[in-house]
Amino acid sequence: MSYSIGEFARLCGINAATLRAWQRRYGLLKPQRTDGGHRLYSDDDIRQALSILDWVRKGVPISQVKPLLSRPVIRLGDNWITIQETMLQHLPRRAN
């Protein structure tokens, strides 16, 4: 689905001027353009914008967010179960 900058701004809770600045100054978000030059944002852009917001809310300056977006996401919840199972396998078995 495609969204105008106004629709996109409302969906993400980000001011349209902020979105333009993120694109122009920091190379964040790369919306498609209509023949008339208007920005068209996608569902993937929504996910990226929300990820950017998450980093900013964690205190990361917007100028430092771009490299973080290309890093793989570590889901500790999934890995934690695997780690626990591995640790349990290495514990000595106690006889009752």
From TrEMBL:
Q: Where is the HTH merR-type domain?
A: 1-71
UniProt keyword terms in alphabetical order: DNA-binding, Transcription, Transcription regulation
Q: Which InterPro entries match?
A: DNA-bd_dom_put_sf (IPR009061), MerR-type_HTH_dom (IPR000551), MerR_fam (IPR047057)
Write one Gene Ontology MF term: DNA binding
Q: What is this protein called?
A: MerR family transcriptional regulator
| Originating species | Salmonella enterica I
State the gene name recorded for this protein. ycgE_1
